[in-house]
Amino acid sequence: MAPAPARATLVVFDLDGTLLDTHSDLVESLNHTIAALGLEPVSYDDLTHLVGQGARVMIERACRLRGHPLEADALPPLVERFVAHYAGNMPGRTEPYPGLVAAMDRLSSAGYRLAVCTNKMESLALGLIDKLDLTQYFDAITGGDTFEYRKPDARHLTGTVDRAGGDIARTVMIGDSINDIAVAKNAGVPSIAVPFGYSDVPVSSLDPDQIIMHFDELTPELVERLLREFATKVAV
Ligand SMILES: O=C(O)COP(=O)(O)O
Ligand SMILES: [Mg+2]
């Protein structure tokens, strides 16, 4: 019997702060949301401590930051207010980071599959990617509410890989913050960190396998080298 064809190599992207510079719209919708409680607006610098676990946690953290911890029943209407504002303004000022589209073209033409694994709500991720006309690049897009678990739980990444028809042994994860590097470590795949997103610590302290400063550096050669080096490391 002929051997089964090798499954495609998959590059999985985080969304906020990695694929897309979403900061203006996140700050604007968050401030619109907390203004309902009379709270002072937050700034871009605050965002690095607030983003990472989806809108619910971001709102909770922003309220705490403004000295107004929330009771459990206060949260759902605020989440609704955030989602309505954010979805209503998409794509707003959000745009892909420089060089992203060229990098995705380069990888796709070389036969690589691409996917998104974000802790953003799935509906917001799908809507935003669609508004920016990028949907056709991805074999799977999963959000923080797609499964019962989310980054840094390994199953969010392995579930994304399954949906994209990938192979966990031929997968690389790229992201801007601790959840992305941690999910890669938890799932046993190499990671690439970008320093231009929303990490509250320098990405080098997260111990990724590679840091790239610009998407020009994201090439098939880099992906192959990381997979090769990672396999050797694991085998030792
Ligand atoms: O929206 C968030 O809180 C996190 O989103 P990300 O996982 O795409 O960075
Ligand atoms: Mg991110």
UniProtKB/TrEMBL annotation:
UniProt keyword annotations, A-Z: Carbohydrate metabolism, Hydrolase, Magnesium, Metal-binding
Gene Ontology CC: cytosol
EC numbers on record: 3.1.3.18
Claim: Hydrolase is one of the keywords in the record: yes
Residue positions binding Mg(2+): D14, D16, D176
HAMAP family associated with the record: GPH_hydrolase_bact
Protein name in UniProt: Phosphoglycolate phosphatase
Provenance organism: Rhizobium lentis
Native organism taxonomy: Bacteria, Pseudomonadati, Pseudomonadota, Alphaproteobacteria, Hyphomicrobiales
